[in-house]
Amino acid sequence: MRRHSLLVLGSIVLLSAAGNGHKVGKPREAGMVWIPEGRFEMGCRNCQLSDALPLHTVHLSGFWMDQTPVTNRDFKGFAAKTGYRTVAERPLQPKDYPDVPPEKLVSGSAVFTPPDRVDTLDDALQWWSYVAGASWQHPEGPSTQINERWDHPVVHIAYSDAAAYCQWAGKRLPTEAEFEYAARGGLKGKRYAWGDELKPGGRWPANIWQGKFPSENTLDDGFARTSPVRSFPPNGYGLYDISGNVWQWTADWYRPDTYARDAAQGVVHNPKGPDSSVDPSEPNTQKRVQRGGSFLCSDRYCTRYLVGSRGKGAVDSAGSNVGFRCVKSAS
Fold it and tell me: What residues contact 96, with CB distance under 8 A and at least 6 apart?
């Protein structure tokens, strides 16, 4: 998707059992948790998502991961020190959009706008609107602020924005395999980052949609949009919001056949993903993998909070449910 369109398709003791310990011989990385070396079956079992199959074995070296998605407070520090402007904040150039009238080339981003009702879920433009002036500082448009959302994940982040922040912080974006392995939190073969039950103990374990999407939100989890990053319990490695709240960018290009290619190799060690993007549904759009789902995911429309499922996003797009977190290699 191009940015002017409306649709978004779219962190020196022994390790503890919860994953909050440090790597032996290494000082703790502030705000990050150590994800130990290990092997796992990557993919989504019994969730009818062809691009998340076949299951295949991946072996990863240990790495550090941000404990939470990058917050508005974090991103403000970056922007203040560097003067960085996100893709959503930059002026649109007529040469990049020759078919768009110049008066309509206004910077902004896609914002979830719930309709009164929908008859079909085939057209996401029914609940997404391109809002002039929407950005990380103005999540729903110029009239909205982040003064009371400092601990919420930053949103309206395009891939290049996330990569720029990680580079500034001396970190990088996670690979898709690193994200899934960390999200599983040491659990094997489970549907969710917290186990096999969607609502364990009768409580919602993540910020996802409850009700009839996209027009009826019962707010059973307490949040209509994003939530503060520590509002729900962490997974087994001590990671918060590894499912739900906001989609999170990974470093991997998106291809629907990535898993088939990896499975043919046997055990794959530290995969970096394919060297190019292909999405048959939008063959001319370059996309990266996104992970974790968001506050808009529901069992009716989007179940991408399933720990083995995949998302995707155009590299030049952003939206009110897209953020990121960083990782750091051991050496």
Answer: none
Q: DSSP label at 159?
A: H
Tokens of 134: 């929407």
Per-residue model confidence (pLDDT) at position 153? 98
Q: Which residues pair with 40 in a beta bridge?
A: 58
Q: Taking Cα atoms as reference points, which of 260, 243, 259, 258 lies closest to residue 191?
A: 243
- CA angle centred on 251, ends 8 and 83, rounded to 5°: 75
Q: Per residue in 4-62, pLDDT tens? A: 333 333 332 223 333 444 444 455 799 999 999 999 999 998 788 899 999 999 999 99
User: In this structure, which long-range contacts are made by residues 184-189, counting pairs with CB atoms below 8 Å and at least 24 apart in sequence?
Assistant: 184/40, 184/235, 184/236, 184/307, 185/19, 185/235, 185/236, 185/237, 185/239, 185/242, 186/19, 186/236, 186/237, 187/236, 188/40, 188/41, 189/41, 189/45
Cα dihedral across residues 275, 280, 285, 291: positive or negative: negative
| Distance, CA of 213 to CA of 118 (rounded, Å) | 9
Query: Residue 163's CB: how many other CB atoms inside 10 A?
Result: 19
